[in-house]
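Here is one such tokenized protein:
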Amino acid sequence: MINKMFSGIIPAQYSGDEIETKTSIEFSDEAKAIQFFEVAKERLLNVNNWHHVAGLVSGKFEVVNAAGEKLNRHVEIGDYFKIDIPGPGSSEGNGYDWVHVEEKQEISENGYNSIGFRVRPSSNPLSVKNETAHFYTNAATSTFIVTRENSTVNAIIIDRNLIPNNGSESILDSVRNVVIGLGAIKAFSKVQWQNLAEGLVKEEK
């Protein structure tokens, strides 16, 4: 169901590594699931608050426009994420890693609701250079999805085509990107996305 419904937003895996994370919560009836889906949807789209939703998430995400100005609203196509991860930042990214929101999709059918968006590593919008400011190349994507299938609400995060960005003009950035990129494939991204997925569908007591 997930892959079929989101065939237009989840790219094919063709190179590098991939990570898929899914967390679900089951409700006693469909009405409660429909109500909670709206809660999970709000959490998903409020990217500026992800570090609170995820708890021990390792990175902090801030939604900005092409001028680097923080946007206090739901994420939209064309936005950028300014990402602060532990350790040394990208010199090309002014200390941050950057991604661009390139797709967003919402579906509502009988017994099914979903919303998701896809981001891709990008250049720093504040830089005159057109160099990818991220530890992965711009072949990589991350897709974030929340669905409601009957009485179940799911959070799905899918990384595809994860290739360390070792083509930076900066030798230090290239070394950093390879080290972080390889580590992220094995540990950082998986733990971060698992924490986020669980937070998106966590029922408040």
